[in-house]
Design brief:
single chain, alpha+beta, 8-stranded antiparallel beta sheet, 3 helices, globular
């Protein structure tokens, strides 16, 4: 009886440690859409999609940076459209910055944002990907405090801040930092 109790306590402890790690440390996720191509391969079939690790700890001590790929819960605007699952996008605009789209490029405080590290040279950032209505970035905007403007790397096929607005910091789950599947693509995410 004592051995069974000891095994039960050990298993409970391991499950609690696993819950603590997933809740506060690192979480595994898969990419459900092609919005972050070519950086991350996504598809509705999770067995064919990239699998990533999300760091849920570091933003407790540091602020999100431009270029970070984040996973976040749907904004109020997205909830109104019945979205429930988390999104993954790249941070482009930081709190207090003026952001606008001109000539197919992103401008931050009147300067072209250099994105050649993750966007192909011919990739244009346009507003025409948004569904009918008034897109968020139809004119220049200043990002509110504690909020971030996010875009997908596949700008022609990404439903992102251009259409529905900014992400509040409290909605950020964490930073995507490592791909662990498929095995031939394992490594840091940039």
């Amino acid at each position: 009886m004592a051995l069974i109790l000891a095994i039960f306590i050990a298993i409970s402890g391991l499950l609690n440690i696993g819950w603590i790690i997933r809740t506060y440390g690192v979480e595994a996720r898969w990419i459900p859409s092609g919005a972050m191509e070519p950086t991350l391969h996504g598809t509705p079939n999770q067995w064919e999609a990239d699998k990533i690790l999300v760091d849920k700890f570091s933003y407790r001590f540091q602020t999100p940076q431009r270029g970070d790929i984040i996973v976040f819960w749907p904004t109020d605007e997205l909830l109104k459209e019945q979205y429930q699952d988390a999104f993954i996008k790249r941070i482009v605009g930081l709190p207090g910055e003026k952001v606008e789209l001109k000539n197919g490029q992103v401008y931050i405080n009147n300067q072209v944002l250099v994105e050649d590290r993750y966007l192909p040279a011919n990739q244009r950032t346009l507003i025409d990907v948004c569904t009918p209505g008034t897109p968020y970035l139809v004119k220049p905007v200043t990002i509110p405090s504690e909020s971030y403007l996010v875009l997908g790397d596949n700008r022609n096929s990404s439903y992102d801040s251009r259409c529905w607005g900014v992400v509040s910091r409290n909605l950020i789950i964490g930073k995507a930092y490592k791909r662990f599947y498929p095995l031939n693509r394992v490594g840091a995410i940039k």
